[in-house]
Structure formats: structure tokens, C-alpha cells
Amino acid sequence: MSAVNAFHQLQTYLDSQVLGQPSLTEHLLIAILADGHLLVEGPPGLAKTRAVQALASGIEGDFQRVQFTPDLLPADLTGTDVYRPETGEFLFQQGPLFHNLILADEINRAPAKVQSALLEAMAERQISVGRNTYKLPALYTVMATQNPLEQEGTYPLPEAQLDRFLLHLSLGYPDAETEREILRLTRSETLAGQIEMAEPVAQETIFAARRETMTIYMAPEVEAYLVALIMASREPGAYCETLASWLAIGASPRATIALDRCARAKAWLAGRDFVTPDDIASLLHNVLRHRIILSYAAEADGINADQVIDRILETVPAP
Question: Coil, strand or helix: which one is 145?
């Protein structure tokens, strides 16, 4: 089976397990293809955790769920050196971060020192404990969730860590018909048990798919459009006075790289060998939402990041 067929089969499986969230299932695959991390934000009960668990059952690799709480310690994630009295030596015991797919559930409930431990794993694919540094698996992705409604007992994620997330999805509730389909799915699972994917996607297939996505063609005009969208967040005064009053800090070069990789992955999933301006525009919200910082004036006026990104898309002409 070719890599693209394997991913289409995986996408079909995810859509059958997570109803009413096609954007979530698509971006889960884009994150895997673009070798990045995903932050999913939404009210409880929208199948955020279920989607990541379904993805874990559909690919070859180890899966580990970590429930983030205020009393979590860095060693609870990274692992620690354990003293062996029989040998008089310290032996490193790996923590839950040493797996291929990590589900960081309610990530914003952990304090800053725990976030810093996760930051090294996300950014450099390694973990430092004492004087030693340990490499993480070649296939390594963090899928984090957070609840935007309940703020008590939560810690805002630092901007440096937010920038390490490839994409930031914001989910909404499904419609009435999808709600009925969800009821039917849960009833059938209660009677027959959880449905599993017939053949998980092998890691070699994932690496081959990543190489294929990087060969997707991007025309110079489309590339210039991509860069212009990022520059509009950094130098908004050159594009629109309203944007200049709304934006305090724009996106970093990491956003440019993320948008490029995600657009190629989206085109590859669609069966095309070239990137279109629509591919880039459709991903811009999820790439920039967590990377731009609004001005005090924008926050006072009730402007949110999505409205700012809408204005960027309106201001920058597509080729």
C-alpha cells in the first residue's frame, strides 16, 4: 500500500471514530506529516482526547497519556535517576515523555517548571536529566488539549512554548444531525466494543510520506503570498492602519516554516502535487492563532486573534 493510500485509510478511520470534527482529524494528520506538535482547545466533551487515542491506535508506535495537574513535577514527565543500593549506581528510569505519541491532557493545569521540562522535549526532541541528555524517538509528537472555559487552577502557556506548537485548533460544538450520529456510534460501541483499525500505519510509511510532502511544488507567487501573510503580522503598518493598532507582536520565522510544511501536507492529502493559495489561507488561523500578541487597544475593544487573522487575509491579496 502506498503512503498516500495508507493515510487516506487512516483519515477514514479517524472520521468514523470522531464525528463532527473533520477539521480536527485532518489537522491531526497534517501534524504527523509536518513533524510537529498540536494544541487543541475547546470545551469539554468534544472528543479531543478520543481523537488522539484514535490516532494512536491507527499508527505504529507507543502512546502515552499524561494528565496535567498543578502538583505535577518535571521528573513525573522526564523521568529521574534512581539509586540502586546493590550496585551503588544511579540508573535512569524513563518518564512518560519517552513515547512516540504523547497526549498532554489539560496542559495548562501544570505550573511553569513542568512546562519548561516539556519545552526541551518539544523543541529539541531530547531530555536532559542531571548531566546526561537522552534522545527521544524519531517519530515524536505531542498532542495537547486545554479547556478555555475554566480558568481556576490553570497556568497560561508561555509564548515560547506556544510557538513550539505547529498548529493551534479551536473547536466548536457539532450540529444536531451530527449529535444524533454520535449517539448511534456510542450505542454501537457499547454493544460491539471499540472498533480498531485493521492495519496501523507503519513508521516507515510515515517517514516516506513526510519525504513526499516536501517534494510538493510551491510556485514562487504562492511562496511570496505565504511570506506576505507572515510579514503583515510583523509589519502591519505597511499593510493596514487597523492592523497596526491591533497587533503588538507578530509571528516568528517558525510560523513561516510551519505554514509551508502544513500547506504541502494539506496538498499531499488532497492528492495534488502543488500548493494553492487556498491551502495557505485555510491554515493561517491555526498557524497564527497562538503566535501573535494583540495590543491592549485590541483587547479593550474585544478583538480576538481570529478577527485579526481575518483582516490579514482581507488585506494581503492572493495571487
Answer: strand
The span from the CA of 124 to the CA of 122, in Å, is 6
SS3 245: helix
For the chain, percent helix, then strand, then coil, each to nearest 5? 50, 20, 30
Residue with cell 502515552: 64
- pLDDT tens for each residue of 110-123: 888 888 888 888 88
- Could you give the C-alpha distances from 163 to 123, 149, 213, 229, in angstroms and in order? 10, 22, 22, 17
Amino acid identity at 228 = A
Q: Please give the CATH architecture assigned to the domain spanning 214-315.
A: Orthogonal Bundle (1.10)
What are the boundaries of each domain within the chain?
3-204, 214-315
Contact in structure between 118 and 79 (CB atoms under 8 Å): no
* Total length of the chain: 319
Topology (CATH) of 3-204: Rossmann fold (3.40.50)
Which conformational region is residue 195 in: left (phi greater than 0), alpha (psi within -120 to 50 degrees), or beta? beta
pLDDT digit string, tens, across residues 221-249: 999 999 999 999 999 888 888 898 999 99
3-state DSSP assignment of residue 217: strand
In this structure, which amino acid lies at residue 296? Y
Nearest to 103, CA basis, from 144, 75, 140, 70: 144
